[in-house]
Amino acid sequence: MTWRAAGRLGAVNEQQRQASSAQALLASGPGLPLIISPKGSLDADPSLWERFGLKRAADKGELRALDESLAEKVAAIRASGATFTHMLRPRGTSRVFIVQGGPAPAPYAPGTLLLWFIDITESERKMEVLHGQNQRLSSTLDALSALIEAAPFPMWYRGPDLRLAMVNGAYVAAVEAPDALTAVQSGLELVDESDGKSPLSQAAAVREKGEAVARTVPATVAGQRRMMRVVELPLGETGVAGYAIDVEEREQARADLARFMRAQRDMLDRLSAGVVQFSRDRSLTFYNRPFARLFALPLDWLADRPEFDRLLDRMRENRQLPEVRDYPQWKEEHRAWFTSGMAAEEEDWLLPGGTHLRVVAQPLPDGGLLLIFEDRTEQLQLASARDTLLRVRTATFDNLFEAVGVFASDGRLQLWNNRFRQVWQLEEEELAAHPRIDALSTRLAKKLKNRSQGALIREMVRSATVERKQRTGQVQLTGGRDFEFAAVPLPDGNALFTMIDVTDSRMMEAALRERNEALVEADKLKTAFVSNMSYELRTPLTSIAGFTEMLANGYAGALPSAANDYVRAILDSVSRLSSLIDNVLDLTQSDSGSLLLAEDHVDLAAMCAASAEGVREAAERKAIMLDIGIDPSVGIVAGDQRRLRQSLDNILTNAVGYTDLGGKVSLRAVGDARGASITVTDNGRGIAAADRERVFDRFHRTAAAMGEGESALGLGLPLAKQFVEAHGGRIELQSELGAGTTVTILLPRQAEAEIAS
């Protein structure tokens, strides 16, 4: 029993597998089944009802819920057991079904019916599209056939065997056949054999080549011999189509045109002018011998039919075109001759060799161009020489400020300008006689303050014309005007004599020289005055300082506290005034070259630190942050330590003084083997562009002076600049208004041996 149970279980599983496979095949098939029991109940897949837009037809009670006619056919075959096919279009949907019905196979009970619903909606839609295309193609074919029949020239079609299958009325008339059917059945060919090839072999060659072929061949049309242009087109395996156009008149006109062109070219070849002709594609089609001789072009090169552009390029290489600044633009303008209409264009060409050509460009009706070159060099030589002389005389000489005269190699005056005549007060008639320099120099000497210089002018002209040497000189006329003159040899053997009035420039030069001497003398007097006043101020200042110190030390008895404050104020003022006088003396000594510098061993790092400490108290009063950065590489230089310290103190004092409360002043010092650099930077008010160029001028005050005293007088930076430059260094300043100022001291390095000495 266990063995049998296992066997039956396997069979059941196999049946279930087969049932699943059958169900999958049924679901993927093109049709959906419907089982109708003998009692009329319906059994189908739910998807069938969905396609019909129903939840379930059985809910309606009968098959009529799907289709009335389908229900009638099912009722009709239930008794007979026959099969049927029915097209069904369910209501409310756009779907189309083919229904195939008949008795259901075993093991269904007798009287059971099986209906297969096959959805052919997409196929039906495609068939409708194809039907519409078929109708349009049929209409197009009818129209094309009517067009071919109405064509005034012969047309034909050859079938797969390349024999005539269809011809139009023009073809029938050309071969003189009674009708198209007779022409096709008899195989009447329009074109005779050519080059030993029959029309069939020609058609076979066209089909083998796979593209349209055109040829001009003789043909007999209505009993007359005509030239026909035959075009045949391959249609694949279906055959070959063709048509023929009568070109007899065109060929006759072409022959007449060829005869006319030969006669015309024979005539043009006998002209003395050069003639060249270009075709529509701008290639050379004709030239005559005068053209080849005129432009020295090889005949074999011209025989290659060069294009218009190539011909112009070759002519330019041979220097047979006018010299132009922009040759590509010039060529583009002349290329427009081909498209300028039927009006002729005329130009004059002056070639580099001196040849003058008259060029006529005549566009041709066929799109070509005819060019005629006439050599007019001999006709225009005299006119050109005359025009050149006039242009040189009027455009060059008469517009010059200088007095100009041109003397020929024999010493005669050839050309002159109005300025020349006005300076020497000569008459036009006298100059028109072209006097020699010997006679002219006698007249010119009368206008000179030193008459002996007349011979100098004559000798200079002779030297320029004969010896080809350039000479210059100066003369003064009797009216007091001064002139500089020169005699220059010209390339053509003549001499150019020029004179320019320098009276005003010399007067201006003398006035400037006198003014400069006066300014120098005034500056010396000012320097001496300031120096003497400084020395004179020292004596009373020393007495004031001495007596004030005695008062401060109690030599005159004890002083009240208020008096002590007054004494200290006097001492401070004396100290500032003494420093100011020392600075003024240093400036005056520097100007006079008497400033003496010590040769100290200056430790720049220590000097920078001491200067920073000197302004720290003033910086703290304004809450200014001092940023000190001294690199040991700044090292040692040789120089006057007091002067260098004074220069740095002045720069730092200015930086602190011109920086607002809460600002920042930076001091940086670095160096290398060549020298040292000390940079002071502040973020204060900055210097306006108008003051930036004058901050190193003595006694100059900027628009934002910081107060009274030395700095307000503008002595700090000028002194620093003079002291640094006295050590062989320089000061650089960079500043922007409202963005702060940077001042850099650059000092050269000196060897320690030199410092020690």
From TrEMBL:
Reactions mediated catalytically: ATP + protein L-histidine = ADP + protein N-phospho-L-histidine
Superkingdom of this protein's organism: Bacteria
Keywords: Kinase, Phosphoprotein, Transferase, Two-component regulatory system
Entry-linked Pfam families: HATPase_c, HisKA, PAS_7
InterPro entries: HATPase_C_sf, HATPase_dom, His_kinase_dom, HisK_dim/P_dom, HisK_dim/P_sf, PAS-like_dom_sf, Sensor_HK_Regulatory, Sig_transdc_His_kin-like_C
Residue span, Histidine kinase domain: 532-751
Molecular-function annotations in GO: phosphorelay sensor kinase activity
Protein name: histidine kinase
Species of the source: Allosphingosinicella flava
The organism's taxonomic lineage, starting at the top: Bacteria, Pseudomonadati, Pseudomonadota, Alphaproteobacteria, Sphingomonadales
